[in-house]
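=== Structure Prediction Worksheet ===
Name of assembly: unnamed complex
Input type: mixed (protein and possibly other molecules)
Chain count: two
Listed entries:
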Amino acid sequence: MIPAVEFQSVSRHFGATRAVDAVDLTIAEGAFFAMLGPSGSGKTTCLRLISGFEQPTSGTIRIFGADVSNTAPHLRHVNTVFQDYALFPHMTVRDNVAYGLMVKGMGRAQRYAKAEEMLALVHLDSYGNRKPAQLSGGQRQRVALARALVNEPRVLLLDEPLGALDLKLREAMQDELKSLQRRLGITFVFVTHDQSEALSMADSLAVFNDGRIAQIGTPAEIYAHPKTRFVADFVGSSNLLPPALTQSLGGPARWSSLRPEALHPSGTGPITGTVTALRYLGSGNRVTLTTQGQTIAALLPATDAPEIGSTLTLTFAPTALHVMDEA
Amino acid sequence: MRSDASFPLKAAAFAGLAFLHLPILLIFLYAFTTEDRSFAFPPPGLTLKWFAVAWNRPDIWPPLLLSLKVATLSTAMALILGTLVSAAMSRTRFFGRDQLSLLIILPLALPGVITGISLRSAFATLDIPYSTLTIILGHATFCIVIVYNNAVARFRRLSGGILEASADLGANSFQTFRHILLPNLASALLAGGMLAFALSFDEVIVTTFTAGQQATLPIWMLEELVRPRQRPVTNVVAMVVFLATFFPILAAYYLTRGGGETAGGGK
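=== Predicted Assembly ===
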């Protein structure tokens, strides 16, 4: 099968800055793909390379097999939902959505009919006559979505699509985007710095660091088997154990990661330390303890609330200690 | 919220307004006086005859038409060049950009005498005869700045994303310009254009240096003051000039209200 998007050692340098550095990437057709990373890690530049607003300094970008490395944005079958939505302020919602069809020369009646169809898809049926300024943030987001989808793109790009929404709305939109993608079968590529968003929405993701992809895989793979310290630390929360500590816990002399939820109180357990902090999270307690000069966090049931200063002994299943490739 | 200014502050404000606007009211008053040699106050009587006299004086029309022509053409030139410069300046970031933007605004801040004398020597060096064209070029130097200032403020407020969004949705650059950029710039350009027109219409200093034998309306008025003949006619013309420049400025103010961007109204 031809992949929807393919990067072959793509680089984009801005002067001396290597925003994207020799990235290889394959996104399968119909995937919900996330590009995750801190700001400045190159994920947004990668998205702009796909949409055509950036040209690679070197390397090849293919969309459904066709080399588009130097193709102008308006000639790619790719549409973007922008971070600030970028709705046209002087047009009604209907004209915004119909814009892509208008510039292709479709007649007014036909394009308005299609625009209404798209507005219905995002549950904004009766909002066609409003101006963007009269909509809430969540509604603008939906208009931006409808405006991009009306062109029937083969790949839809979303730049931090939920960043500007409040928590409740964000969770609702996550479910909605997911079901929309499943129904339409279009390849979605979205950029986010929010690891929980990436884990819950994507069926495949790439973690970016310093212009390179640190790891690529399914959310479960990346969460359970982070390849580098950076990935372990950035995706979820993790205890990063230096080689000496790993060795004392029965592992090889390499860095390892231990998820806080994998730790349980026990009488014997290999980890013994002094409790230095305790945070009540509602669903449980997050306990911090110090052992061998190292701070370790553990997620305990809400009923388990050790005193600060007391000694706590913890154990874990042998498979929970994940040894990383990095020495 | 109602702000309550203290009495001295209010008095000072009124005094300032009076200082600025009473002379203009005097011009209006003397347009109706019956006495045509010296400006005696109060006027011995009021009449409308100077309007008829002004209408029938053949020497008023050529300067008026020349002023309209110069203002129209220099504004048109400024609209094109000013918009292009502002588009370039707001789209890219490069070394020395701030210094360059200062250079663009400089003609407005520069005393008219300097602009005038430098243009005059430039025209002389290039062997360009002083004509309507040289007046238009002279006025365009500051008209461009006014259009630039208005357009650049609008560009700054315009989310750069909408131009990208347009391209992303399949529009070529001309379609983006026609459907997205122009509608969003229109009111700023109209405001800038009107201000530029008004400033060009009553410009004296640069015109004096760049005009040949022709006289624009303000220059004609200056000459009239030296030759005291039918003095109130000058006042009638002054009133017309005032109204012709006041309304564009007022319209420009209302068009760009809320943006705080009616920049450069003070040549």
